[in-house]
Amino acid sequence: MGREFSTLFYKETLRFWKVAFQTVAAPVLTAVLYLLIFSHVLDNHVRIHDVPYAAFLIPGLVMMSVLQNAFANSSSSLIQSKVTGNIVFVLLAPVSYQSFFLAYVLAAVLRGFVVGVCVLLVTLWFAPMQFVAPWWIFVFAVLGGAVMGSLGVVAGIWADKFDQLAAFQNFLIMPLTFLSGVFYLIHSLPSFWQNLSHWNPIFYMIDGFRFGFFGVSDVSPWQSLAVGSFSLSVLSAFTLVILRRGYKLRA
């Protein structure tokens, strides 16, 4: 792992940075619109963890932006390369499957992190925020981006066309994200949905990320870290296996 990794990582980073208006500015605008709408309706009526609803909502929106954009970066890059046929130039180069995996995932983490920071900086104007444990904020942002970046690699390899990738995102990523406690505490849900939420790994990443701001969470941040690390390990191992076998990449 050396020049081939740095070259592929640079390519993937440049790919999203060249169209930053679409890949960075657009998600920031979406998050701000969510904040404006929900905070306008609920901020005077709801307090969670003894903080205004807008303040509670901001970490969830930041983490949701990190997760969705990390997934979008790796998955969209692979499907575009497969559809246009230029994936062959990467596959013919002397790039190990470990370098291939790391380059795509780390570029996804970087995009998610950049979007998350931008969302946080913009939304700080709307509510006072605490930063009780900044280290947890950073850890869960990177961990969440890595998990979704790995899942994006799997989705990009599996999908043969944009419709399949859109179905993957609409029927798996979107429900998991919106049902993970971005907009609410899971303790406010009926018992069935509470139990179901505990099987959602994205819930743990958002809950741990929010702990870094307020110092309170639905579960221990160490438990969230364990679930996130386990999810990343399983996804990474699975992705490396299909990369080594050349599944849907090599004829």
Main sheet attributes: strand count, strand direction, barrel closure = 2 strands, antiparallel
End-to-end CA span: 25 Å
Strand content: under 5%
* Poorly predicted segments: none
Residue-averaged pLDDT: 89
| Rg computed from alpha carbons, rounded to a whole number of angstroms | 18 Å
Q: Which H/E pattern describes the elements?
A: HHEEHHHHHHHH
Number of domains: 1
How large is the count of helical segments? 10
Q: Structural class from helices and strands?
A: mainly alpha
Shape label:
globular
**Estimated helix fraction:** over 70%
According to DSSP, the number of beta strands is 2
Cross-sheet strand order for the largest sheet: 1-2
Written account of the structure:
The chain is 76% helix and 2% strand. The protein is mostly helical and 251 residues long. The chain has one domain (3-245). It is globular and about 55 Å long. The two termini are 25 Å apart. The model has no long low-confidence stretch (mean pLDDT 89).
